[in-house]
Design brief:
about 120 residues; alpha+beta; 2 domains; 5-stranded antiparallel β-sheet; about 35% strand; binds copper (II) ion
């Protein structure tokens, strides 16, 4: 019995771990901490969105991003940590941007206004 159930549980856990379905940013960060410790830290994801807020002091940008299939994320508005403050130079609220997220904590490592 046990031998049969254990693989099933393992499979179910893997499915849960890979399907991160964020509802709110805080909740998502929580889930990421718990669920994605096995995910590649170097994983890079490209995405697009509209700038909704910039916090230079906190080095954060709030983006209304399009769905990100690679992460199983629906379209949503959320704040991202920015890898370097210089990335925020020349970026304004309302700009359409292309950006790149890296690692389990989804830090913005590249950010460009849509040309
Ligand atoms: Cu999001």
């Amino acid at each position: 019995m046990n031998k049969l159930i254990r693989p099933l549980l393992t499979a179910a856990t893997l499915v849960l771990a890979t399907q991160t379905l964020p509802v709110m940013a805080a909740e998502m960060q929580d889930m990421d901490m718990k669920a994605s410790s096995q995910q590649s830290q170097a994983e890079t994801v490209q995405a697009s969105g509209v700038v909704k807020g910039i916090d230079l002091q906190a080095q954060k940008i709030t983006l209304a991003h399009s769905p990100i299939k690679a992460l199983n994320w629906p379209a949503m508005k959320m704040a991202f940590k920015v890898a370097e403050p210089t990335l925020l130079e020349g970026i304004n609220v309302g700009d359409k941007v292309q950006f790149e997220l890296q690692g389990a904590d989804h830090v913005v490592t590249a950010l460009e206004t849509d040309a």
